[in-house]
Amino acid sequence: RTTIAAIFADQEALGGQTVTVCGWARTIRDMKTFGFIELNDGSCFKNLQIVMDANVLDNYKEIAGQNVGAALIVTGTVVLTPGAKQPLEVKAATIAVEGPSAPDYPLQKKRHSVEFLRTIQHLRPRTNLFSAAFRVRSATAHAIHCFFQDQGFVYVHTPIITASDCEGAGEMFQVTTLDLENVPKNEDGTVDYSKDFFGKRANLTVSGQLNCENFAMAFGNVYTFGPTFRAEKSNTQRHAAEFWMIEPEMAFADLNDYMDNAEAMIKYVIRYVLDKCPDEINFFNSFVDKGLKERLEHVASSDFARVSYTDAVKILEENNDKFDFKVYWGCDLQTEHERYLTEQVYKRPVFVTDYPKEIKAFYMRQNDDGKTVAAADCLVPGIGELIGGSQREERLELLENRIQELGMDPKDYWWYCDLRRYGSCRHAGYGLGFERMVMYLTGVNNIRDVELHPRTWGNAEF
Ligand code: 4AD
Ligand code: MG
Fold it and tell me: What pLDDT was estimated at residue 169?
């Protein structure tokens, strides 16, 4: 038994050989005495053309009468057909029906809208779009691991359930064993968490960063790669409630080290995907985003821009007539501003650095001006923010003051502060949104179409 990918990869050697492939029929054409099946097994983007002959197959009628979507096992001879539309086909000696498909199979040989496909998420991996998106997703994950492993980063696993809110935005899904209809209360009316499984309020992690810092202070360079959760009600094309994040953390490193590493990582991943997924990228380039390939090749071979938040705000203020939300120093940049900077001003990826401390998280290192922090977001055309990161505050006193200022409970962060008491050092890290990276690599413009079962506001059916 082999795969369609293996047949195409090794076609010269396989000409005239007998193979067995298992897959699902994309189309079935019956011309009475002979017919064709386009078979797909998910191993690659290509379909395999199966030729069936009524004189050869004693169950010809049964096979020709199958509906699209049927699961078939085909044994036959590989015939090279140079000059034809497809370089090879398989002349079937036997075809067995592993599982027939009902006549109301909803995927037909036409382009279905992405909106329709979201209503049949269990079947959409069998379409060209999802087949390509998910193989790119797989290759992207592999490339990320290769990049960090080759540089000696240790892959660590940070917990999914946590008591701290890394980003301090309060957008957490609570995890509890308390009966919500009958919540135990303290005398002062607050929830009595001592009766809860963990004895305190716990939630799904919004970021593994704080735990990653624990690892970095022992291993130097580390990264985590796992699911993260945000109870954001933003119903946009770029936000999901469950998404994956890659979070490297580097000891004895500063903001520039983070940006250098992130830029090299993105270029590496682009080159890897262009190299390993040519059929998929050609498909996206033809049907989803016409400039994709050229743009990716350009990004992989040119420098990213870098601009301070203060300078970026000056540029944006001059163009305030173009924005719904008017920009001023101190405001959080909206997607429209981020996209304007990267698409209109720089026309390539750009790191915006040194944001006002009020709009960034408590752990970011304060700059000497007293107003900004050593943060950097990487913005890319078509997406906006792809990466968020910073140099971390390694000075105990400044960190403790910031925790107090923000009204956070220092008791919750005692272990995090401890790192600053025992061998503290400069360190920096970042978070790459994995789905946004896949969107960037494919040109797919909605996060709902790079996750099989997206978790967004009001959606958890599948
Ligand atoms: O900018 P964020 O919130 O940064 C952090 O969580 C840091 N603790 C990371 C770190 O320094 N280790 O999130 C990082 C990235 C964003 O740039 C974005 O790409 C992605 O995660 N992201 C989301 N992707 C999809 N849906 C959402 N709701 C997202 N929120 C953030
Ligand atoms: Mg961010």
Answer: 86
Beta strands (DSSP E) in 230-349 are: 242-251, 305-308
Q: Using a 6 Å cutoff on CB, does residue 436 contact ligand 1? A: yes
Expressed in percent and rounded to 5, the helix, strand and coil fractions of the chain are: 35, 25, 40
Check if the beta carbon of residue 338 is closer than 8 Å to that of residue 327. Answer: no
- Confidence category of residue 176, pLDDT binned at 50, 70, 90: very high
- Determine whether the shortest distance from the Cβ of 386 to ligand 1 is under 6 A: yes
Contact 11, 19 (CB under 8 A): no
- What pLDDT is recorded for position 234? 82
Distance 244 CA to ligand 2 centre (A): 14
Q: Which of 108-112, 141-145, 369-373 has the lowest mean pLDDT?
A: 108-112
Q: How far apart are CA 332 and CA 64, in angstroms?
A: 61
DSSP alpha helices (H): ranges in 119-183? 128-150
The more confidently predicted of residues 64 and 233 is 64
DSSP β-bridge partners for residue 225? 246
In angstroms, the CA 444 to CA 438 distance is 8
User: Is the beta carbon of 230 within 6 A of some atom in ligand 1?
Assistant: yes
* pLDDT tens, position by position, 86-107: 999 999 999 999 999 999 999 9
Give tens-digit pLDDT for 414-457: 999 999 999 999 999 999 999 999 999 999 999 999 999 999 98
pTM score, whole prediction: 0.97
Alpha carbon separation from 218 to 212, 213, 270, 329, 418 (Å, rounded) = 10, 9, 31, 38, 13
- The pLDDT assigned to 54 comes to 98
Asked whether 247 lines ligand 1 (CB < 6 A), one says: yes
% of the chain exceeding 70 in pLDDT: 100
- What is the greatest pairwise CA distance in the chain? 85
- The ligand minimizing its distance to the Cα of 379 is 1
Distance 245 CA to ligand 1 centre (A): 7
Q: Which ligand does the CA of 239 lie closest to?
A: 1
ipTM: 0.99
Q: Which ligand is nearest to the CA of 374?
A: 1
Q: Is 338 in the pocket of ligand 1 (CB under 6 A)?
A: no
Residues 6+ apart with CB under 8 A from 147: 264, 265, 268, 269
CA dist., res. 269 & res. 276, Å (int): 10
CA–CA distance, 64 with 48 (Å, rounded to integer): 16
In this structure, which residue's CA is closest to atom 23 in ligand 1?
433
Tell how far the Cα of 300 is from the centroid of ligand 2, in angstroms: 23
